[in-house]
Amino acid sequence: MENKLPETIYDVPTPCMLVDLNRVKANCQRMIDRCMTLGVELRPHMKTHKTIEGAILMTGGNKRKIAVSTLAEAEFYAENDFDDILFAHPLISQRLDRCVALANRLEVFHVMIDSRYALESLKQKTLNSGKKWSVLLEVDCGYGRSGVPWDDDEAVQLVKMAASSHNIIFRGLYTHCGDSYTSCTLDVAKRQQVQDNTTNRLIGLKDRIKREGIECKTVGCGSTPSCSKPTKDMSALTEFHPGNYIFYDVMQMTIGSCAIEEIAVKIATSVVSHKASVNMFLTDSGFASLGADGVSYINSQPSGFTVFPDHPELKLIGMSQELGKVQPIEGKLDLNKYPHGTRLFIHPWHSCDAAMMHPHYYVHSGEQIIGIWKPVRGW
Amino acid sequence: MENKLPETIYDVPTPCMLVDLNRVKANCQRMIDRCMTLGVELRPHMKTHKTIEGAILMTGGNKRKIAVSTLAEAEFYAENDFDDILFAHPLISQRLDRCVALANRLEVFHVMIDSRYALESLKQKTLNSGKKWSVLLEVDCGYGRSGVPWDDDEAVQLVKMAASSHNIIFRGLYTHCGDSYTSCTLDVAKRQQVQDNTTNRLIGLKDRIKREGIECKTVGCGSTPSCSKPTKDMSALTEFHPGNYIFYDVMQMTIGSCAIEEIAVKIATSVVSHKASVNMFLTDSGFASLGADGVSYINSQPSGFTVFPDHPELKLIGMSQELGKVQPIEGKLDLNKYPHGTRLFIHPWHSCDAAMMHPHYYVHSGEQIIGIWKPVRGW
To answer: Domain D-serine dehydratase-like spans what residues (chains A, B) (predicted)?
Structure first.
């Protein structure tokens, strides 16, 4: 199948994942330009697509400065000549040997700490002669997930201990402002408040650290909603690390991060069964190809939690493993309009999850299939 | 990693999927024995595990009589000397060429129809000399998904047309009683009612077909809840085709299909971050390794929608891609009991979805890792 490409998006086998290369390029370039304008460096996150081709576009071709969510990604990119890689996941000692190999191999490999435990683990691991660990403090600016709370004295204490360690270069601060997703509804004021709070808390911590005589070269913040619509305050940061924006999705559209025309992925699916008795037809795209994340938003808007871009009259009302249930948003379904085998396209709720379900993505320009991208999997 | 096996379930890298071989064997044997006792044939469904090793155990070693949800599975099993394979998905003409190859290659390859469209597609495709399509009618006995409604005259009409086609052998009836999941709550009476309704509707249709002079050799019904706890009436059926029972999961336990001691899969995860400020710790198992299906049941029971078998005091309260948020079911968390790196195990809500997230499964007997199973992926 991989040897001979299908000609068009109407010829790909269903279900499959389609990546719109022109939209991807535009999404990537827009983020590069935005960061340039703000005077902020961009360290794109790879977790959404996990491919070489996507990473090249996100880094503007220079293959430097990326963030990853797994060591499998880090190793995959290292093997493919990427460098300056940040492992953006809380560190545990079980993963240290692989981190040592990456740190020794790469020019720069960054890790994060959010505890004395992680710091001590690093201090006990020696790198090749002359090399030191490049360490960021992970900060929780109110999202409530990983990281040291921004207002906790422990944040400054940890930085002092890191900066004075013989085998560590303290690099700066990292935060993920996941609260910018604000319950997946469009609430611009609330999102901007989150972004400003996050920024000010991070800058405040940087200043407290500076009073101890320690410089944060990097003050980085991520999340696609905040980096797609940055507030003025955010130019005080040095680095953005969003990831999802390469593809965007219905969730991001719902939040207001993107327009529907910027969503660069869709699942190609076929009508496989007619159920006039329940005003429905079935497609061959269930959660095995669309991903299940977001199902709880299935009634959040008229079209459900996904969008059929060419058929705004349709709503995905449920999924099993390999079947999707589709009804009209209102009225009686005219099944003659959707014969068996009809090709439909679906923008997924969460492209990070949908992409994970696929061994490869078909890449298209307009209707033409022009390539296949193969993501790395596992951990 | 695959070359040298980790020694025990405490040495596997996290996150990963663990398969308890002894439980799998017991689950498989119990279903084989149950079918034997009822005088019903077993055609296990492969969609949950998608491995050769699991299929051998489910078929009692004879590699015959299986159901699959994708053609990728059908081709994978055909290449590995399995035969008598049922493609249990609504047929569309785009998939016919691959079906022809399977039908020509295998001794028996069954397909399902639920429309004149599907029937006509088959009639137009000739198999190798002497071969005929083996066709089942997919029936909807009230679940409301694919299949012709049991009480629709079209069911009998389709069978008559199929039985009189020159290149078709009409084999019988197939239904998936997905309504036996009864909103994922334990409601034994309601489930039994669904099972009896399904059975009686299917047998009623079989009798109506017989009055037309056509025999249904196969009258098959599936779903793990109904086949794990069959009612007496179900012995009137000729074939069961459940799939999930090889692994079971928290959803099946909640419905009453299995005991917790029969759940044969768990995700191995590590404590990666402490968050005393929000009475929580984080693990490295998010929806990328646990699957997102079932998140809407996250508050359905005290332990959430997953179970920590060795730590009944814990609850998974949320997931992002690579992080799980864990709190105590009640009271204040003593983080000293869960140091960084602590190995935990989680039974997933839906093992079909969780398994799909993993490139391979580590198989263990007691605490010893004894092998790796590699599932087929794609469509």
So the answer is: 264-365
Compute the distance between CA of residue B88 and CA of residue B67 in angstroms, rounded to an integer. Answer: 6
Mutate to test the interface with B, among A177, A321, A349, A356 (most CBs of B within 10 A): A321
Contact A272, A323 (CB under 8 A): yes
Structure tokens at B5: 């096996």
Model-level pTM greater than 0.90?
yes
The answer to whether the Cβ–Cβ distance between B92 and A270 falls below 8 Å is yes
Residue B122: both structure tokens together = 């088959």
Contact of A343 with A14, CB cutoff 8 Å: yes
The bridge status of strand B265-275 relative to strand B64-68 is: unpaired
- State the complex-level ipTM: 0.96
Residue A158 Rama label (left phi>0; alpha psi -120 to 50; beta): alpha
In chain A, what residues touch B356 (CB-CB under 8 Å)? 288, 357
What does pLDDT average to over chain B?
A: 96
- Alpha helix ranges (H) inside chain B: 21-38, 52-58, 71-79, 96-105, 116-123, 153-163, 188-210, 224-228, 250-255, 287-290, 351-356
Residues of A in contact with B15 (CB under 8 A): 379
pLDDT digits 0-9 by tens, B228-256: 999 999 999 999 999 999 999 999 999 99
